[in-house]
Amino acid sequence: MCMKNFTLQSICVNYVSENVERYKDELHLLPENVRDRIDLCFLTPEKALAQAVVYGIDDMMLVLLSKVENINSSMIEAIKLGTTRSQMELYREWGATNYDGGMWEAARYGHEDLVHLFKEWGATDYDGGMWEAARYGHEDLVHLFKEWGATNYDSGMWAAARDGHEDLVRLFKKWGATDYDGGLHSTAMDLIRSTRLFLDIQKEPVPTQYMAPFKEKEDDKYKGSQ
Question: Structural domains in the chain?
Answer without folding.
Answer: 1-79 (no CATH), 97-226 (1.25.40.20)
